[in-house]
Amino acid sequence: MAVDPRSDDDFSTPPSFVPSPRQRAKNDAQDALPPSFTPSGGNGATGQKPEMIPAAEQTPVHGYHPLLPKEPRRSGSSHMPQQAQQLYEQQRAQYESLNQQKQKFQRGRHAQETESTYQSYAPQRQPVAKPQSFHPTAQKPERRHAATSSSNPSTWRAAAPTNAASANNASALPQRASVYQPRASRAETDAAAAAARPMRRARRKHYILRIIAISLAVILVALGASVYGTYAWVDHNIQHYQALTTRPKNDNAETWLITGIDARDGAAGTGAKGSVPGFRTDSIMLLIKPKKGPDALISIPRDTLVVVNGQHMKINAVAETDGWPALANEVELLTGVKVDHAVRANFNTIEDVVNALGGVYVCFDHTVDDPYSGFKWTAGCGVMQGEQALAFTRERHSDRLGDIGREHQQRMLIQDVVAQMEKPSFYLNPTKIHKVILAGLRNVKIDDRSHASTLLTMAMVFRDATSKGGITGIPYISDMGYEDPDIGSCILWNATRTKQMFRNILNGTEPAGTVGGIE
Prior knowledge:
Structural class: alpha/beta
């Protein structure tokens, strides 16, 4: 056995990488100290979390770097004995294993102390109560990550602590639930869509109904504003005149005295201009609306004999000679009915209104060719224009009843005009309405106690009186050709029967139909 030339002292000296007892005590004292923080590691006063130092950048433990081992110290000889070489390798491997375990332990302790230090220096905040929907741990809607697959659960991501230290610290803080959920099946999706479809239909239906209701409300408001504006404009521009007496009003009825004026302006069939000076009230009607019973329209013949201030005259001349209140007074004396409202119109009103309506449909059963009025008509139904309608209201020579027949024709034409205004072709046509209103404002006047609403009420009562449920007619006439020495041929009434007829109308006891007549 060869003898190693080195002395025993060489083997008694430990290699340089094996720490001496003094060195080990020094290393243990250093390990007891808290880990140091680099300047970039953060500041606990400001609440910033320090960064961990990677293992590769840490200072080698005990002066040795695990990746750079040093050779053992040699003494005296340039060759290491084989026994010393084996001992060196064993000790080096043992040290490297211990050093790796120590570094792993230090890294874990460093992370734990860093987290605890950050928590201790971070500013403390008082918890604020929040609604469940705003709480961090509240259940969030299901959402699938675009990069994950519902068929591979290993790709689902969920928040979980990485080690025991972070799990202990995380338990004190609210954790957010995972937002990544597997995709719902096609059947579940279709079922959810089918369940939501009726609700969407109901919302759409309610939305459409709401739009329709709002549109109708806007239209009604616009129509109301338009109607009110038109009424205010008509009421402001309508002409008034003094026509009533001072007698008290009726308690059981409302009445209108309707008169038509023929000024003899040279129109066809009326004679030369100036042949009859002034004007004549050739159309006189008394419209009555009792509180109970049917409405009534009674025509008063224009040749009725009256006595005014001791002078005999026909009733159609009273307004010109003594004024409109005198005419109302004579009507009240003849009928026993107080006149509440008065309306007068020129005969030209008929022509203007009929032209504004575009013609009036009339049925007349007589064939007429009257050279005095200029009216021509073939028995049957047809449309009358303005000039022809005016001649129709003046024509009386072809009728054996004379003025009585003409008054019937006037009532019939006014009834047809009112019926024409009730059709949608009129009240849905603003142009026609405007023309009719302008024609009325030019030729119609009302008493100084009435308003535009009086005309509207009168039109409705006129319609009811001329319908099947109303009363129309004339007074009871005792003599159609009475000869008066002052005025010639005139008409005499049966005063007793006529006043009784009007009392029945006011009381509502007169049946509907035609009343009065020639005895």
